[in-house]
Amino acid sequence: MVDGVTIGYWVLGTLLMGALLQTLLPNLFSRDFNVFLSKVTIGSILLVASFVGLQLFLKVHNSSYREGFEAKEKTAMELWKEMSDLYQMSEVCALKKRMEARILPVEKGVPPNELTDTQARERTEKYFVKDTSHGSVNCVAFEKVQKAKDIDTFFVTVQELPNTFLIQVYETAQRSNSLLREKVSEIEKSLKKKEGFVDPSVGVCSPEIVEERRKFLREKKLDEAAQRCLLPEEVPFDSKEKVAAQKVKKLQDTYDAYIRMYPGKPTVDEMLAKAKEMEKKLDQIKKDAESGDLFKGPG
């Protein structure tokens, strides 16, 4: 199909040919007709040139718009959302919290040998860091990033995560599975053991660094480090977006390098599925123990 630009070129070429004939053979037409033809030629050339120019402009403009739209890069917060969904960070933290709720009462003990909440939490955390290369995931820090609704908050909270954060997510899922297997094995070996897992609620508090700085600014009680740093709103948007995106990429790159060293390792999805199976088994064992079924003989 012939477009408008091609037709314009044809018309323009025809007019130029007429002008050339008029120039080479001035006596071919009458004087008045030559004058008329010159005016028509000049006007047509200008009209066609304007039409062709408009067509080219629209083509370039539409092409640039489509390319700009299609090449739009994802924001740092969008990259984080994809990453958190891919590695099921919320599910891993939920698993860790359930495990903490099971272990914490056992570690706390009972009077008169009862430990403080802080002591019990410290001892509980040791279960999760054992046999890991980079420690356990900090779910409080993760939740702060998840709650970020704007680039200012996200820019601050994502910087608090270590570059090994994704590795910690993976190893927390791995370690939780190990703990569940150990507990199932322990119970199966000694069904009469009364200590075990219960379900108390767990609360964790963490001071907001940004709010503390704002408070210090209001009260003019800044130490040397606080005087040198900037609040999120003091950093230009482009800089925040770039730095935050680089941080998210660093988290992924660090994890990729780690996982390449251990080919064939189970995925986070697979470990979460196994953990749910073992949790159901523990819950069933608990119900059987409460009903007395565990202590009934065969037949």
Protein model, in words:
Residues 193-209 have low confidence and may be disordered. The protein has 12 helices and no strands. Helix 1 (4-24) runs antiparallel to helix 2 (31-70), helix 3 (76-86) runs parallel beside helix 11 and helix 8 packs parallel to helix 12. It has 2 domains: 4-70; 76-295, no CATH class. It is mostly helical.
- Structural class, please? mainly alpha
Helix and strand run: HHHHHHHHHHHH
Largest sheet: none
Number of separate domains: 2
Question: Low-confidence spans: pLDDT under 50, at least 5 residues?
Answer: 193-209
Number of contiguous helices = 12
User: C-alpha Rg, in Å?
Assistant: 36 Å
What is the approximate shape? elongated
- Say how many strands there are: 0
Alpha carbon gap, first and last residue: 86 Å
Helix content: over 70%
Mean pLDDT: 76
Strand content: under 5%
Characteristics:
single chain, 299 residues, mainly alpha, elongated
Could you give a short description of this structure?
Helices cover 71% and strands 0% of the residues.
Topology:
Elements: H1 4-24, H2 31-70, H3 76-86, H4 89-108, H5 117-129, H6 139-146, H7 151-159, H8 165-189, H9 209-219, H10 224-228, H11 237-260, H12 268-291
Helix pairs in contact: 1-2, 3-11, 4-5, 4-8, 6-7, 7-11, 8-12
